[in-house]
Amino acid sequence: MNITIEDIVREAAPELKVVTIEADVTNAATSPELRDELLRLGENIKATYRLDEINKRPGIAATRKAYKALGKEPNRYRPSSEALCRRIVKDMGLYFINNLVDLINVVSIASGYSIGGFDADKIEGDTLSLGAGREGEPFEAIGRGILNIAHMPVYRDAIGGIGTPTSDNERTKIDLDTRRLLMCINIYGEEMLADDTIELALRLLSQYCDARNIIVKSYWASGVF
């Protein structure tokens, strides 16, 4: 899978770096060890941030800045990393879905980056384009119905939108039958070092999902490598 970044996103977020991780995986219900890892991370977040400090984390603040540059109000459509951390700090708890989804949430919470997680076998074509959502563009968000993605960064395959920093699409969502994962780590501004984020993701994928045939790629909005 390859990523192309459209000019509208390059101009709005010139510091954007996208890291993709593809892997063959074996998914399962959330393991007790991963559940504990996520809960420990949540306790650390609660001990570190007040509610009004969450959106000032560098990774989250940079994502919000990109939303505003594209014309989207981030307080109405929060990036997923921000929404997860707010749930933790407000003591609302987290959902436990399955190993793949929950390990992606660990990486997102730890790094401050919103991360797209897709069943690669459900993606149409071998290239995703990262552009801006259009008015009235259809998008069925996972667990929340139709989402207004106008002026929001959006990954599209040959059929249409599959992921935004706020939510991914039902059409390509991860489930227990997922055998090939595509993870898109959206670094609009650096918080956790990219190499450390990759290392964390690979450790979790290996530990909880028997990841193999792994491919890691990086893309820069600036075009500078």
Automatic annotation (TrEMBL):
Gene3D superfamilies: Phenylalanyl-trna Synthetase, Chain B, domain 3. It holds the Pfam family B3_4. Transmembrane segments: none annotated. Residues 61-210 form the B3/B4 tRNA-binding domain. InterPro entries: B3/B4_tRNA-bd, Phe-tRNA_synthase-like_B3/B4. One of its GO terms (molecular function) is ligase activity. Keywords: Ligase. This is Phenylalanine--tRNA ligase beta subunit-related protein. It comes from Heminiphilus faecis.
